[in-house]
Amino acid sequence: MNVKGRIVVVTGAAEGIGEALARGAHARGAAAVVVADRNLAGAQAVAKSIGGRAVECDVASDAAIARLIEDTEKTEGPIALFCSNAGIGGSKSDPGNAASPPDDVWQRAWAVNVMAHVYAARHLLPRMIARGGGAMLNTVSAAGLLNQIGSAVYATTKHAAVGFAENIAIAHRDQGIRVSILCPQAVDTTLLREAGVGAQHVDGVITPQQCADAAFAGLVAGRFCILPHAQVETYMKAKTADYDRWIGGMAKLQRTLAAAKDKA
User: Fold this and answer.
1) Distance from C-alpha of 261 to C-alpha of 233, rounded to nearest angstrom
2) What is the 3-state secondary structure (H, E, C) of 178-228?
């Protein structure tokens, strides 16, 4: 889809990929861009710079997303593209037990990385279907297609986000709904920097703007799976071609990263 002349909402838009998506939508002629984030001051700064509107929103809350959608459609008009972008990294796992993070860490990551997409779809679908269609861009991660060394929380929730998006894309395609998942590998954001040494060894760190540019190109092309890092497709093919070999390779990479961390 093309966003020119249309209403766009971006969550997690105070910085990083979300900010780049908001700026990208504005640069591509969106009629209005709603910049949503828990960090209201950050959202206001971005919105002011692009002539958009800032909204404070915790995407882990169904009620908050419902209000965001309702208020946007009352104020700006029908949402053509909803970028469900907000996400969190989750806790690192204990090297001795990948399932070690406490329940509250799992639940928070589940709420933000999975349920936020569910809430957005829950409240958008009836509106979009009634008017003949609409688009949703869910920022996931290459971790949702591959995995994430060192964080079972992140890997698991991102896999679930992919599964949900696939289901919505299938279930509502004939009603004019288009769903895309944005699955970058490493992007130069606060999330990456907070991940530590291991994350820096992922090949190909791109800028948030490069990620957003890939997202809009993918939307125009009508792609479900948008890969800002082309090599991720190669990794996906290797994974499905020989799952056991792929797991062995990932275990080897884990050893390499652990050794690099020990030397740091």
Assistant:
1) 27
2) EEEEECCCEECCHHHHHHCHHHHHCCCEECHHHHHHHHHHHHHHCCCEECC
**Domains assigned to the chain:** 7-232 (3.40.50.720)
pTM of the complete model: 0.94
Spatial neighbors of 96 by CB under 8 A, at least 6 apart, are none
**Helix, strand, or coil here: 241?**
helix
CB 95 within 8 A of CB 258: yes
**Amino acid (1-letter code) at residue 109:** A
Helix 231-241 with 243-263: angle, nearest 10 deg: 130
Asked if 46 contacts 20 with a C-beta cutoff of 8 angstroms, the reply is no
The residue with tokens 């971790």 is 143
Contacts of 40 (CB under 8 A, 6+ apart): 54, 56
Q: Determine the pLDDT at residue 195.
A: 59
Give the pLDDT confidence of 101-154 residue by residue, as tens digits: 999 999 999 999 999 999 999 999 999 999 999 999 999 999 999 999 999 999
Is-contact 183 123, C-beta < 8 A? no
Residue 103, exposed/middle/buried by CB under 10 A (0-12, 13-18, 19+)?
A: exposed
Instruction: Cite the DSSP H helix spans in 62-178.
Output: 62-75, 103-110, 116-130, 152-171
Is 9 within 8 Å of 77 (Cβ atoms)?
A: no
- Quote the DSSP letter at residue 12: S
